[in-house]
Amino acid sequence: MTQVFEDVRVNEAGFDLPDLKFRELVFIGALKRLDDGSDAARAEVVVDPARPLPPFRREGLFPPHARFVVFRDKGRAAFISVPMPADAPLRDGE
């Protein structure tokens, strides 16, 4: 049985979680990197609705197709939601 993930800190700018969890979400494909990965402290990601996310105690953190800028520091990954560009193509017929 999969354990519900609870180590999420919500703040006025967004939320953060352990960097290891961020790397796991990228590894399993639930988050797709939009940048080239050259900056270890900053990432741009989008939620891939075709890939399942592990369960989180707090629901709604990762809506389908949501985009985030992620700042990685001191073992934490801070997620800040950014609007989807108007010219961004939608996937999966949405």
Uncertain segments: none
The secondary structure category is: mainly beta
Order of helices and strands: EEHEEEE
Outline, from the CA principal axes? Answer: globular
Question: Measured on Cα atoms, how large is the radius of gyration?
Answer: 13 Å
Count helical runs.
1
Strand order of the largest sheet: 1-2-6-5-4-3
Largest sheet: 6 strands, antiparallel
Secondary structure tally: strands: 6
Beta-strand content bin: 25-35%
End-to-end separation in angstroms reads: 31 Å
Helicity level: under 10%
Overall residue-averaged pLDDT value: 88
Blueprint (SSEs and pairs):
Elements: E1 9-10, E2 15-18, H1 19-27, E3 31-33, E4 42-47, E5 67-73, E6 76-82
Antiparallel strand pairs: 1-2, 2-6, 3-4, 4-5, 5-6
Overview of the molecule:
It is a single chain. The protein has a domain of 59 residues. It is built from one helix and six strands. The chain has 94 residues and is mainly beta. The termini are far apart. The mean pLDDT is 88. A six-stranded antiparallel β-sheet has the order 1-2-6-5-4-3, with helices on one face.
